[in-house]
Amino acid sequence: MADVITYREAVAEGIAREMRRDPAVVCLGEDIAEAGGVFKTTVGLLKEFGPERVWDTPISEQAIVGAAMGAAMTGMRPVAEIMFSDFLACCWDYLVNEIPKVRYMTGGQVTVPLVVRTANGGGLGFGAQHSQATENWALTVPGLKIAAPATPADVIGMMAAAIRSDDPVVFFEHKGLLASKGAPPPPGHVVELGRAAVVREGADITLVALASMVPVTLTAASRLAEEGIDVEVVDLRCLIPLDTATVLASLGKTSRLMTVEENPYQGGWGATLVSVVADEGFGLLDAPVRRVAAECVPLPFADALEEEVIPTVDKVVAAVRSLAAY
Amino acid sequence: MMEATELLALYERMALIRRTEKAAHDLFMSGLVKGTTHLAAGHEAIAVGASAALRPDDYVFATYRGHHHAMARGATPEECLAELMSRATGLCGAKGGSMHLTKASANMLGSYAIVGAHLPMAVGAAWSARLRGTGQLAVAFFGDGATNIGAFHEALNLAAVWKLPVLFVCENNLYMEYTPIADVTAVPRPAADRAPAYGVPGEVVDGNDVVAVRETVAALAERARAGDGPAIVEAETYRHFGHSRADPATYRPAEEVERWLGHDPLDLARGRLAELGVDKETLTAADERARDAVQRAVDAAKNAPPPDPREALTDVWADGGAAWRT
């Protein structure tokens, strides 16, 4: 294996590793087989595993996710792709009413081990219907696990955990990170869902980020270090299970907390995290909690407008300065 | 032609369902069943006739009007009534209720209360059966109203394109809830008339004739198992009760109600049994067994304990728990 792997290649590699070890893993989605995915995240799967395990579908999000559910209930481990996370709305019934509830409402009779993968997030100028960061949509529904890796190694490790999970997992692959590179993880690499990573240690302020906001936050942290502000960065990795223990532990060290979220401020994941901190970590805080999140508007097309809406390095730096000075 | 012993067994199963539905109605009216019920009295021949044409390991997906399907696949009156009455001994431990009867041990994989949502699931179960090479079939039972929802189209198209072993059985009882299906549908036969659009057979059958239903489903099941793809069955039938709860169904013309009540599935089966030489005493004995079994079920359900409140926090995840954070 090469010394470096892109996030994009890591998606296919992560799926392939699981397909090699478990014949129950099958893939379905629009343009995923012959075309290798519109984002080229499934390149090579058809060639290695053949058309009985890698299936092109019509543009039918309900059928894709509904069929994945039926297959998962009957012995398979399907990995379904929804091309853009905005399109989750087209099959939202399955992600809200069916998949997360069937185990519960049957009194535990049914298990749904499936993964819904989807290309998520903004920064690429795709406009209001192809750019949203929608992890927080899934966060409103008990019964879904939510993974959103930030690095190629985590893509592979979390994909392994997601596919092996007996619970349904919505797996957000960030479009803005597809070209990013990192070291490929060793064979058998598994990152347990619900384990955040402290990706930079610091003493002054805890910044919690997810997916593409992790590199934004790390860049901001480097700049802030030059000013003498020592930032700790937590990559949340998953929204469910939510690793509040790691966040509270970090807060015990820094006493200041800021979230960096790509989703709109209204209803963003940071609100849930911060509510736990307010409830259980109030005594640890020396300053108000801050949330840097997207503006509460649809995502605009032009770069100059999009940058105005979603968090940037400059916005994070400014917010941290203000919080550090409190 | 069906032999008398088999038809008698089907008759008794239908009688058991009829008695159970009557009991469910009475229990609802007396306040012992909360929430809602959608009774299938009148629809018995579709569930029992189709079930008689299936293998024990075939997959069945049903709707919120699904008591007859659970019972046709082996659920007992007591399991069903206990579920309706919020008892711990219910099919789903009282977590599902009337609309979600499920008997997964018999591959009756659920009753779904979002109209049409289970059609793609049945497609997925059929896909899974084919991938695993088991020869199993999946059947989705649904109402006439479901033929106008998007999931119907997506499921039919995908099943046809992939030539999957799945049958779509429409229970056309002429009303989508309170509105005549003919008033809101572009074609006279809401399910069968759509079949040509997907290049699949669409057969109309007297859904109150258990023998006709069995024969129609058996022929299409054989075809589907042989790899010739899915089919639609439109089984014409009629509700003996209203849509739900205490609906008196006054929107149905008296003359229509009278005509359909004169075409009762139990009466039709009785007539066929008489033609086969089964005497009246034998039929009366079957009726009495059904009546007694349901009375015992009502008594047992009434005496069963309520669920332990702690059960509310189980069965979200495959580990049995409900933890959303670490």
Task: Give an overview of the whole structure.
The complex is a heterodimer of chains A (326) and B (326). By secondary structure, chain A is α/β, with parallel strands linked by helices. Chain A contains twelve helices and 14 strands. In chain A, the strands form three sheets. Chain A has a seven-stranded mixed β-sheet with strand order 3-2-4-5-7-6-12, sandwiched between helices. Chain A has a five-stranded mixed β-sheet with strand order 9-11-10-13-14, with helices on both faces. In chain A, helix 10 (269-280) links the parallel strand 13 (257-264) and strand 14 (290-294). The longest helix of chain A is centred in the N-terminal third of the chain and has 15 residues, at 7-21. Chain B is an alpha/beta fold. Helix content of chain B is 44%, strand content 12%. Chain B contains eleven helices and eight strands. Chain B has helices spanning 4-29, 44-52, 67-72, 77-84, 118-132, 150-161, 195-198, 210-228, 254-261, 265-275, 280-303; strands spanning 59-63, 108-112, 138-143, 166-172, 175-176, 179-180, 202-206, 231-236. In chain B, the strands form two sheets. Chain B has a six-stranded parallel β-sheet with strand order 2-1-3-4-8-7, sandwiched between helices. Chain B has a two-stranded antiparallel sheet with strand order 5-6. In chain B, helix 2 packs across helix 8 (210-228). The longest helix of chain B has 26 residues, at 4-29. Chains A and B meet through helix 3, helix 4 and helix 5 of A and strand 2, helix 5 and helix 6 of B.
SSE inventory with pairings:
The complex is a heterodimer of chains A (326) and B (326).
Chain A: E1 5-6, H1 7-21, E2 25-29, H2 45-49, E3 54-56, H3 61-72, E4 77-84, H4 92-98, H5 102-105, E5 115-120, H6 135-139, E6 145-147, H7 152-164, E7 169-174, E8 181-182, E9 197-200, E10 205-209, H8 213-226, E11 231-235, E12 238-240, H9 244-254, E13 257-264, H10 269-280, E14 290-294, H11 303-309, H12 313-324
Parallel strand pairs in A: 2-3, 2-4, 4-5, 5-7, 6-7, 10-11, 10-13, 13-14
Antiparallel strand pairs in A: 1-8, 6-12, 9-11
Chain B: H1 4-29, H2 44-52, E1 59-63, H3 67-72, H4 77-84, E2 108-112, H5 118-132, E3 138-143, H6 150-161, E4 166-172, E5 175-176, E6 179-180, H7 195-198, E7 202-206, H8 210-228, E8 231-236, H9 254-261, H10 265-275, H11 280-303
